[in-house]
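Backbone-to-sequence.
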């Protein structure tokens, strides 16, 4: 079956000819509980601590960025039960056109070719999008994805399908927040509350700081809308350093109660840690991280977690280790060249 035919159909039988398997597009909010169930089952099996809620996904879909939910999210039903889901999102990263492909397969449906079929479908959708997007051809066009090294099936599939590992990231955990050390900010800087009134300025400052990081894409208005509408947003936990009217550094913090309940942990995430160039190497990140840890401890949270690029150019990995964060898991980013389909 060709991609052109699929574009006009609501369902299709997979090219892998798996008995009882049919793939369809996302049909609306009624599909979200099934998608969440698939992601939870897959990630628990792969020891990957990302367990979104229906409310979180619903908020994200209300302001889609880089994808059209009704055309770029797919659900695979096996014998009438949803067992896998995948999606395609476009990002411009480091002057490369990147189509990020995401997929999850329920462990009960693995080792039957479902993941491979879903990957082929999302690749085909990305090729169609690339062919009709009018992308400049002077820059590379690539498929991209990433996942934990504990997901052995994903790693085997990536290697078999010609993807190359290009970057590694680490999950780190600080297991004890009970006695966090205090470090002062540089003279002239202070931590002030983050509010809805100043959140856009903080968001833009994060975007500027992350431009020096590998794989960064420019933050968008859609992403800001998703942040504002995030059901778990708790700005009281954020720590932002101000130098007069300028944002010097940010630690965006979140506590995800449902994820913690399922995993049986008491954890807060330092989701994003950034310092703008002119304030780097002055202890801003250290002061903000420890302030964020104190804030979590005051909430009764037992541990802090964060993710970091293993080759971060600002020396973040060494800093986090010095502050008591320990490596717990490695994730690999994969890339493969994309050749757009020819259009008539």
């Amino acid at each position: 079956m060709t991609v052109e035919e699929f574009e006009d159909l609501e369902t299709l039988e997979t090219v892998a000819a798996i008995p009882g398997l049919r793939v369809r597009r996302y049909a609306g909010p009624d599909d979200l509980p099934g998608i969440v169930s698939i992601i939870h089952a897959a990630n628990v099996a792969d020891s990957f601590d990302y367990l979104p809620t229906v409310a979180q996904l619903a908020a994200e879909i209300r302001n889609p960025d880089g994808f059209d939910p009704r055309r770029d999210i797919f659900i695979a039903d096996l014998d009438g039960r949803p067992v896998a889901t995948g999606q395609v999102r476009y990002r411009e990263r480091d002057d490369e056109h990147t189509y990020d492909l995401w997929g999850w397969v329920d462990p009960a449906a693995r080792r039957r070719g479902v993941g491979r079929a879903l990957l082929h479908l999302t690749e085909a959708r990305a090729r169609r999008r690339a062919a009709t997007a009018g992308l400049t051809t002077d820059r590379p066009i690539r498929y991209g994805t990433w996942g934990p090294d504990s997901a052995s099936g994903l790693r085997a599939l990536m290697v078999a399908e010609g993807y190359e590992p290009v970057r590694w990231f680490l999950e780190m955990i600080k297991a004890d927040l009970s006695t966090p050390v205090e470090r002062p900010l540089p003279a002239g800087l202070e931590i002030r509350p983050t509010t809805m009134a100043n959140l856009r300025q903080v968001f833009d400052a994060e975007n500027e700081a992350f431009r020096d990081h590998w794989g960064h894409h420019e933050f968008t208005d859609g992403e800001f809308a998703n942040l504002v509408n995030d059901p778990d947003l708790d700005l009281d936990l954020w720590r932002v350093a101000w130098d007069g009217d300028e944002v010097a550094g940010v630690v965006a913090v979140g506590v995800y109660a449902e994820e913690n309940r399922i995993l049986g942990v008491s954890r807060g995430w330092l989701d994003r840690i950034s310092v703008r160039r002119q304030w780097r190497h002055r202890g801003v990140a250290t002061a903000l991280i420890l302030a964020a840890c104190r804030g979590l401890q005051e909430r009764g949270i037992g541990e802090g977690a964060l993710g970091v690029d293993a080759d971060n150019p600002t020396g973040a990995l060494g800093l986090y280790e010095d502050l008591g964060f320990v490596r717990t898991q490695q994730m690999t980013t994969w890339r493969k060249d994309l050749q757009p389909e020819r259009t008539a």
